[in-house]
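Ticket #4471: structure output looks truncated?

Reporter: J.K.
Steps to reproduce: submitted the chain below (237 residues) through the standard prediction queue, then opened the result file.
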Amino acid sequence: MMRYFTPVAIALTILSGKSSGFSHLASSSRRSPASETSLSGDIARSDDTKRAPDVSVDNALTFLDEARRLRAQANELQLQLNREQEERIRRQRDKVDSLIDALLFHGMSNNATQGLTGDKAQLRSKQQLLHTEEQVANLLISKRMNYDMVNQMFDRICELSNRPQSIDSCSPLLSLLLDAACKVDCLEREDNPNKRWNHRVERDLRKKLFLLGYGIRIEDVDNKNHARSITGEKDYL
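Returned output as attached by the reporter:
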């Protein structure tokens, strides 16, 4: 049996189908609050991930600038310490030079070299300027010199001589200084008003001069012996 549909019925059927499709689209377009929250959280985390490298780079640059600043300060402090050390060395050297001038030389008038020129005048000046052994010995006593001060003068004379020193060949200034020290060493302790003198100055400096003739510094030997006394090391050679 065939059914006949009127045009009105067909129209209603089409309209009902379209309305159900529209409702499906509307329901699919609507999202729950939980899904919206999850989506916004994912977007926020994505933004944080993108910003994280920028923050790390900024921190690294800050640390690098701070390291450069500290390094520059350290270099400046080191330079200042070097300058201060050089200044102390210079002052000490000037002090020793003044001692050498005061003990071994004396003033002279310009008439002493009158009529002489060149090397003769220079030789005559050196001869006239040197104190005698007796004068140097008296100055060692009156100026209350001790071994350390005389040893510094010894080292400075060796430095200024610009040549190796030995027992057989030493500077006239060294020879004068050692001879004067020997004269003071030979005094009885009761007769020597300089109580800072240990009466072994000439002996110790002669030993030092002897070793210098073989290219040996007595300070190096003493340091080695001191180290052996601490470690117990023995020399079997």
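Triage note (M.O.): checked the attachment and the full token line is present. Residues 108-113 have pLDDT under 50 and may be disordered.
Status: closed, working as intended.
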